[in-house]
Amino acid sequence: MSSSSVQLVADALLSARRDGQPRMAAAFDNALAGADEAYAAQATVASALGWFADAPPRYWKSGGQSRQSVLTHAPLPSHGVWTSPATANGFPFVRRGIEAEIALRLGRDVDAALAAGLDEAAATELVDAMAVSIEVVDSRWTECMAAAPLLRLADLQCHGALVIGDWQTWKPRDWSRQVCRVAIGSQDPVERCGTHALGTPTWGLGTWLRHVTRDGATVPAGTAVTTGTWVGILDAEKGNLVVAEFDGVGTARVQL
Q1: Helix ranges restricted to H, the chain
Q2: d(CA 254, CA 14)
Q3: 44 φ/ψ angles, rounded to the nearest 5 degrees
């Protein structure tokens, strides 16, 4: 791992966060050699900004484009995780992309030994609650979603903020029939059914837990992970009210 390359990317991301001006990703296209360096850049930024101190992150995002893709993960700073109904106020977004997701909460601690052997069924047994969530997609790169994948990963996989609705007791569902609706301002509402990229929001839990515990960390009970969009990325603007609803699960809303 090249520590200088990791620091170079982390410095660009830190500068963008501090002055609110995105940086040109093209200047760093070949800086990171792989996912490990992108995750190291995540950690460098988090440490510099004091996001987690000595405590493990309590909120994460995890997902991928399909079951055949490599899943990616990012810890989320708690100052950008809000309980629905939420108001963004002056939160410094550059872009306001909207993803409607299901968040899952762990009911027990998970260490590396437990995470090592988890399949979807066993990982699902660790979940005690679920909630509707809205992720506001943002970027510290001018190119946003067109930036190189490793640079997006270093930038918390384009995370801006997360809004979580009321937690509901976890119950198995037929996710292939799950209906999701999103309303953004005066735009026509968007409705989807069974459109999670991984088929089920629980499919990647084991992979996420192995990632979080890979250096010996324990994931504490109560840790939440949001699991990927059902509607792609929808465009919103400052001033829009965003409402996401999943039939039988609940609702989340945020005033941008």
Answers
A1: 3-19, 35-49, 112-116, 120-124, 149-154, 205-212
A2: 26
A3: -65, -45
How far is C-alpha 230 from the geometric centre of its chain's CA atoms? Answer: 13
* Distance from the first to the final alpha carbon of the chain: 39
* Alpha-carbon distances, residue 132 vs 78, 88, 155 (angstroms): 17, 18, 24
Helix (H) or strand (E) holding 179: strand 179-184
**Nearest residue to 245 via CA among 55, 101, 135:** 101
Q: How far apart, in whole angstroms, are the C-alpha atoms of residue 85 and residue 106?
A: 23
* 166 vs 55: CA distance, rounded Å: 24
CB neighbours of 44 closer than 8 A, spacing ≥ 6? 6, 7, 10
- Averaged over successive runs of 10 residues, the pLDDT of the chain (256 residues) comes to 87 96 94 96 97 94 96 98 96 95 98 97 98 98 96 98 98 97 98 98 98 96 98 97 98 98
DSSP line for 87-103: E-TT---S--EEEEEEE
Question: 252: helix, coil or strand?
Answer: strand
Cα Rg, the chain, nearest whole Å:
17
Cα–Cα distance for residue pair 199/39, rounded to 1 Å = 26
Task: Say what the pLDDT of residue 1 is.
Answer: 61
